[in-house]
Amino acid sequence: MRDLLRQSMRWAILISLVTALLAMVLTLVSSSFLNGLPWQGGLLVVLLIVLIGVFFDMLGIAATAAQERPFHAMASKKVAGATQAVGIIRKADQFANFCNDVVGDISGIVSGAAGFAVAAALVFSMDLPESNRFLVEAVLVGIISAITVGGKAIGKSVAIRYANELIFQIGRIFYFFEKRFHIRVFNVKTKKKRKRKRGVLRAPRTD
Questions:
Q1: Which of 66, 84, 65 has the alpha carbon at shortest distance from 75?
Q2: So what's the pLDDT on residue 1?
Q3: pLDDT tens-digit profile of 108-155?
Q4: Mean pLDDT within 187-201
Q5: Spatial distance between the Cα atoms of 148 and 157, rounded to a whole number of angstroms
Q6: pLDDT above 90: residue 35
Q7: What is the secondary structure of the chain as a DSSP string?
């Protein structure tokens, strides 16, 4: 129990730092893109951020729904990506936490902030009165929220039905990075069966 709590605490601290860093980077990048774009381009950027959040949410659900057993036979045949898929499934809690909570929540926050920026650009380009700005912002935020929730609903259905296929494709991506750049994310330890030592049969002791 202590080891589990210790590992959970380490992961919580690490993922919190990663979340803060990613949130700052994505906010700066999206702000720099939106400053030089018209509202149409800004809207495309917002939709792209929403789609990234939906995609990663789908991967997180797939990791928790995938079955490990089919990949063992593939790994024994040395199929590229099978071992990495096993690693994803064994670390499904951390993988889902990163995909759903880190990337998903950051995408939601950044897309909401970017939506307000796009609404302001739209109001300015159309020369609308300031009183209409709140209406435009409300409509845009409503559209972004509807796309996010609807996309995640579709993504969850796809993730649950095709969990193994999705995780296998992600495993192949990790395999590529591992072989090409020597970046190993998941360290899968195989369980070796211990061989029983054959004892020598001895005659019963007689007095």
A1: 84
A2: 67
A3: 888 888 888 888 788 778 777 767 778 887 888 888 889 999 999 999
A4: 55
A5: 14
A6: no
A7: -HHHHHHHHHHHHHHHHHHHHHHHHHHHHHHHHHHTS-HHHHHHHHHHHHHHHHHHHHHHHHHHH--SHHHHHHHHTT-TTHHHHHHHHHTHHHHHIIIIIIIHHHHHHHHHHHHHHHHHHHHHHTT--GGGHHHHHHHHHHHHHHHHHHHHHHHHHHHHHTHHHHHHHHHHHHHHHHHHH------PPP-PPPPPPPPPP-PPP--
pTM above 0.85, yes or no: no
Would the pLDDT of 48 be above 80? yes
Mean pLDDT of the chain: 84
**CA atoms within 13 Å, Cβ hemisphere of 139:** 11
